[in-house]
Structure of non-specific serine/threonine protein kinase:
Amino acid sequence: MITLTLLHPVQATPVQSWTFDSEAVIRIGRAVDNHVVLYSAVVSRHHVELRRNGLQWEVVNLGTNGTYLDGKRVQQAPLLDGGILRLARSGPNIQVRLSADHQPMPPNARMATIPETARTDVEKGTYSGEEEAVGTDNAEPPGTAATGMSYQGIITEEDDDEEENFAVQGELPAQLLAEWRAPPDCSHSRAEADDIFCIECGVPLKVWKTLGNYQIIKALGQSNTYLGWRNGQTAVVKGHSLAASKREIRAFQRQVRQLCQMSHPVLPKFWEGFQYGTDSYLVSEMVYGHSLKQWINDHGVMNVVEASRWLIPICDLLTLLHQQDPPILHLHIRPSNLIHPYVSREATNVVLVGWGKASVLTSESGTFIGTVGYSAPEQQEGKPEPASDLYGLGATIVYLLTGNEPDTYFRWGAREYRLYAEDIPHLDPLMVDLINCLTHPDPRERYPNAAAVKQRLEQIATIAMPAPPVSSAL
């Protein structure tokens, strides 16, 4: 029996396990025909094989980026119980167990999962440069900060007018439901200077500050976004300054409650919302993977069929979001916010992240928050609506098919400055019509809803798919 356990890329705690009883060869890689499928840009389609040799197991590297065993690069080497495999220098780590005990052992080797020259964008799950957080290493115990923290229980409809202090709870993981406790002092001595978690017990080595029930480990690349820790669980803690109006605060509270109650494979899990001082916070799971923008950079542009298959699940999610009362708008749909997760999720291979301030507000604020080129004209005027998300979808299709930003194909026409998909060389006429409709300056001229876009994408993919070869009868 052999058990393989994928380890958390930061804490080195178990994420997912696979157990094999009778296989003589176990293949690991990015392709779907492997026994263990790991979606990572640095993992080869067929990266490594584990081969049984009598009573022993050995690892054989097949990947172009190399395989590491307990920190040393190997081409072929024997496996020992508790060994750590790392696929590529900065890729995922897998612990190997060669006994009937399926529980992962404490890691026995340093796992440099994050390149020294980069930081981890936890919300997007990608590796990208960002500024280091500046602050004290000593955390304040909860309730002692000058701004304070007050929980008023789960918001109900009757509480909508009580915007001063609030807490919204969705389906929290078991660890978060446990009684809050500060991280224990770590006595292990093998940590290196740039470690933020102990590689043996998984607890934070440094705490920057405290927000409510969360120890804040570091600031992430996005404004007011943090890597949080609570009772052994890491999370993305996103802050929102809502000082504009009571209407804006109530809209935030209402739609945070909606997000925490929703479940969809393309949607990150939102765990809770709370207020700390003058800011409100939304807590969600971390999604590790690589964005479709990275995918294009690494693998080249997609064809019509590939792009359609990636975006059809996004249409399903938008249909659900836009049917809420009031509708939930994302307003940041672009390739960098579409994540191909390292760990497979139910019924999807893509997750929509990038849930910023505008994501949980209705069109009441009148403020433009978005990305030029991916943002509809009405959104730029501070008046977003569900059709604004469809505009972002159309602009994203352009990038997936061309590798160019959508504003590359903007020009003045007879009456307006807009994107003209017919300027994209060699583009299927059906896709030209789809993109032009999705990115029409007038939202009334776009598709009526995301379900209609999904139907059209399915039709285009079916028509564009090559016919299977016809076998001649003997």
